[in-house]
Amino acid sequence: MQWDEFIVTGQPLVYIAMVMIVLTSAAVIFVLTYFKKWKWLWQEWLTTVDHKKIGIMYILVALLMLFRAGVDAMMMRIQLAFPDINFLNAQHYNEVFTTHGTIMIIFMAMPFLIGLMNIIVPLQIGARDFAFPFLNALSFWSLFFGAFLFNISFVIGGSPDAGWTNYAPLASAELSPGPGINYYLLGLQLSGIGTLATGINLMVTILRMRAPGMTLMKMPIFTWSTFITSFIIVFAFPILTVALALMTVDRIFGSHFFTLTGEGLPMMWANLFWMWGHPEVYIVILPAFGIFSEIIASFARKQLFGYKAMVGAIVIIAGLSFIVWVHHFFTMGAGAFVNSIFSITTMAIAIPTGVKIFNWLATLYKSKITFETPMLWSLAFIPSFTLGGVTGVMLGMAAADYQFHNSYFLVSHFHYVLIPGTVFACFAGLIFWYPKMFGHQLNEKINTWAFWLFLIGFHVTFFPQYFLGLDGMARRLFTIGPEWFTLNFISTAGAFTMGAGFIVFVFGIIYSFLKSPRNLPGDVWGVGRTLEWAAPTPVPKYNFATLPDVKSHDTLIDMKKDGDSTFDKSKLERIHMPSSTGLPFIMMTVLFFTCFFLVFEWITLTVIGLLAVIALMIVRSFDYDKGYHFEVEEIKEIENDLRGMK
């Protein structure tokens, strides 16, 4: 391999990115060295098994990936703003829209929601930590290094360019030679290990570590949505794992699972991908529904309407999500009968989703609503998501889909579902629970500006794309004709408005860190309903000194009525906690290099890396560390300090 094949050359934008990476890396190293923070970084973050810190790291990675994929989106919108411009050439455009979609789904939406799950679910159910803290740390570093592997592709070797769906035969070694597709396959495989492990971990944590009296039907709705999402992860992700492994073997070792040569079947990839891919949509939607439910009930100051119906709707949506995948390729020749069956199941999923919409509206009905920014995001979600859902039913009609499919109508639809349904929820949940993570609130005025910029920019960006699609503009075009100029220019202006909203949001985080008051009460917003708001702010390492007997899913409301607290001195006992360990970080670092070697098909180095990973697993099996304890007097001192009782 020549040097100019290893390092991407010839693209000015990539050179700019390289300079920015070098400068940013140098700045981080300088700051850590100047302030002597390397030991702090290792002890407090790289080796932590604390679910709250792991959750924060998930969210930081997700915000960074949102910026990266957002820049990709800006580049695409610049290219499409005017007819026949050459800001991006065809190859670079293919790489950009491939990385944009993959990063937004795999490395932004899922890590953001999993981060919120990490932080909040143990607090909502009264757990000290996850059931398997070591595995939780391993899961995060798996995601981190999977994202890192995928993202270095644009400077080392070249980015994948077959779209985020990576369809065969386009993604085969014959039609897409080079390391780009290998980055896709192995980056997703590496991060998928962590996602699957997290699904198992959350499932066991929720089933086995709930507070006294908290039956399943007394769990908060966010915990319920997380619980059902964990089942989807456990059943869906092995399908993706198998598909990625088969294509990796096709590309590197010359098999023919997805090529007609050798009696393979390219359509098998589409089936396997979407058998994972549509449940994946609900992996990033159902937790968001749980976040909106918590926020709407809180700021409406009212019990969530139809709690049991909401739980039932989540279960039904999860079940139906596995039997709708063919609607992603109605036009690929499955036949009228098959298309009809999957058209019916696709439209059926709108029924439990509609139940949830009406339950949120019923919760708001005749309630005393206040308009803090988490509530603004939640209220904006309802009509925006409904528009995306209605157009989804249109696409679910197989005959009509022959007109809509692969047009910008479809592009607009899935952005109208995923941005209000997931991104709005990520912002809302982060703002809502931010004090529990960092001990201070985000500035409401700045957040309001960020909200309105992002919301207006979103609708200005994607609403015109429905009409572009109806006017015949196909997706994946890297250049436009003059007849589509006006709506595309409006769409580009909206995209930059969304970008401005994100910049304002990040500014708000920095401003709040410097200016916001500390020493906040446990129920920061004054409207909390669930157990996490009974913990002090910020939350201590052990989460709760003592736990109440849970009587309903609105635990804090019951505690206030009964005068209960999570600091009952008569119930204090020493608390066991897991020890920090650097092994997850080291293990995933080695696996990262192993996958990197396989990307370039350096088989000898790959085998050495795999043997090193197995050796580290053996080392882990002989780790008999039993953790440490918080003694009663230490707990009293911490609680008194956090609650201002000294």
TrEMBL record:
Localization in the cell: Cell membrane
Cofactor annotation remark: Heme A3. Binds a copper B center.
Pfam families (alphabetical): COX1 (PF00115)
Gene: qoxB
Keyword vocabulary terms for this entry: Cell membrane, Copper, Electron transport, Heme, Hydrogen ion transport, Ion transport, Iron, Membrane, Metal-binding, Oxidoreductase, Respiratory chain, Transmembrane, Transmembrane helix, Transport
Enzyme Commission no: 1.10.3.-
Residue ranges of domain Cytochrome oxidase subunit I profile in the record: 36-551
Known function: Catalyzes quinol oxidation with the concomitant reduction of oxygen to water.
Membrane topology: Multi-pass membrane protein
Name of the protein in question: Quinol oxidase subunit 1
Parts of the chain that traverse the membrane: 12-35, 56-82, 102-121, 133-156, 183-209, 221-247, 281-299, 311-330, 336-355, 376-399, 414-434, 446-467, 487-514, 605-622
PANTHER family linked to this entry: CYTOCHROME BO(3) UBIQUINOL OXIDASE SUBUNIT 1, CYTOCHROME C OXIDASE SUBUNIT 1
Pathway: Energy metabolism; oxidative phosphorylation
Family indicated by similarity: Belongs to the heme-copper respiratory oxidase family.
InterPro entries registered for this protein in UniProt: Cyt_c_oxase-like_su1_dom (IPR023616), Cyt_c_oxase-like_su1_sf (IPR036927), Cyt_C_Oxase_1 (IPR000883), QoxB (IPR014233)
